[in-house]
Design a protein that fits this description.
There is one protein chain. The chain is of the alpha/beta class. Helices cover about 35% and strands about 20% of the residues. It has nine helices and nine strands. Strands 6-5-4-3-2-1-9-8-7 form a nine-stranded parallel beta sheet. Helix 8 links the parallel strand 8 and strand 9.
Length: about 240
């Protein structure tokens, strides 16, 4: 199994010069980024459909072992139901087809649902049926009603997992079940103890399944090894 570490996006001019050298132009950011880290969570796919040319450029810029996570389009995650309605099936299929253009560089698709989306087991079943046979997936719920071993097991049995969104600087005892694990480390800065705890949890989990971990990308100095891209670099180095 493999551990994939990165941040949410790469096109941040403020990462110069602590991460990107001054002589690296923005058009070469992804190429440089992929030499330092092993994964990236793409935010751009959440806002709009990306062209085949853009997808192919991302795919061909990074090395073979690198993996992308793509956020599902907001038109799919922020609609009335989890299950894609009939009128959005063509859009759903078009999105899956587009991101699948990343080929084996596509590690997982993140379905990030709004806080008002409360638990609905029948609706979840419809979504899992729609996702069957497609790219690997992680589901991020923001309402506590979804916190249930029953929900977690249904998702794992369908080939996905529940995304852990960590905002308090704490280390969980384990990840939700599934053939992969996914965490978004949203705390701006982790203590030495928490940072070491995350290192151990990620390393231990990666012995049994692929793990995707993405640190917070905004408002954190690029040279800080306790948060942001600096933390992602530290994790890659230590692992």
């Amino acid at each position: 199994m493999t551990l994939y570490i990165g941040t949410s996006g790469w096109a941040y001019k403020e990462w110069k010069p602590d991460f990107y050298p001054q002589d690296v132009p923005q058009r070469a950011f992804l190429e440089f980024y992929a030499q330092q880290l092993t994964a990236c969570e793409i935010n751009a796919t959440f806002r709009r459909m990306q062209s085949d040319e853009t997808i192919a450029k991302w795919r061909d810029t990074v090395p073979g072992a690198f993996r992308f996570s793509t956020k599902a389009h907001m038109g799919l995650t922020h609609s009335k139901r989890l299950t894609p309605p009939e009128e959005k099936r063509d859009f759903f299929n078009a999105f899956i087809k587009a991101v699948s253009g990343l080929g084996d560089k596509l590690g997982v698709v993140l379905w990030q649902f709004p806080p008002y989306r409360k638990r609905d087991d029948d609706d979840l079943a419809g979504l899992l049926e729609a996702l069957h046979g497609g790219p690997r997936f992680a589901l991020e719920f923001r309402d506590d009603s979804w916190r249930s071993d029953t929900v977690y097991r249904k998702i794992a049995d369908a080939g996905g997992t529940v995304c852990v969104s960590e905002t308090k600087g704490e280390v969980p005892g384990a990840f939700p079940p599934g053939p992969l694990a996914y965490v978004r480390m949203r705390t701006a800065r982790y203590s030495d103890e928490a940072r070491d705890g995350w290192l151990n949890l990620l390393r231990d989990t990666a012995r049994d399944r692929d793990v995707f971990a993405f640190t917070k990308h905004e408002g954190i100095p690029a040279g800080d090894e306790h948060g942001g891209i600096g933390l992602a670099q530290w994790l890659v180095k230590e692992l």
